[in-house]
Amino acid sequence: MSINAVIPVRAGSRRLPNKNIARFGNSTLLEWKIDQLLKVKEVDQITVSSDSDLMLEMASKKGVEIHKRAPEYCDEKTKTFGEVVKHICESISGEHILWATCTAPLVLPENYSDAIERYFEALQGGFDSLMSVEPFKRYIWTETGPLNYKLGLDHVPSQELDQLYFVTDGILMAPRNKMIEWSYFHGKKPFKYELSKINCIDIDDEYDLSVSKAWLKDFLE
Length: 221
Fold this sequence. Notes:
With 221 residues, this protein is an alpha/beta fold. It has helices at residues 29-38, 53-61, 81-91, 109-124, 176-182, 206-220; strands at 3-8, 23-24, 27-28, 45-50, 65-68, 96-99, 129-136, 141-142, 145-146, 164-175, 190-194. It has one domain (3-135, 167-220): Spore Coat Polysaccharide Biosynthesis Protein SpsA, Chain A (Alpha-Beta Complex), CATH 3.90.550.
């Protein structure tokens, strides 16, 4: 039942240059995530997958495994996302894969440990994978009108809306052979593992990074 925690990173980033090695805490986002996963006793192996020699060197210095990806699996143009997931999973070992993005720095070691326990319970219960989510109830529109509520007399308070979920990509787990089969990191029947709003922050731009650093201070105090 070996678990390989995979941290996928690449050299390029459109909205926030060098995002994966942006300064965070007393290190970088990549090193921060490695250090978090090293504290998770349920994880048997950690693999950093990247096209960047710098990032792979940083990972090696931390004593974790590395997977050098060819440029075509990192440019977001030549290969589809599904092909990238399949390629990474075919290139590494482990019976189960924990996909752990370094842009979710406030997913804590205890979150990973709890999610792993829930994951194996979920597999026994008929689920095929696990994905972390942020539950929410908000009024949503498409270009043509309301998506999840009605106007006029049928309007309801937000608390009565159907439960919706953001997929956070902070924790994604599935058997490695299934990720290869699906060319994706979760299946059609994932267990929805709920995280708090703070745990769910995903860094995509400077604003997200600033918010993450502000929340980090609360954790450290």
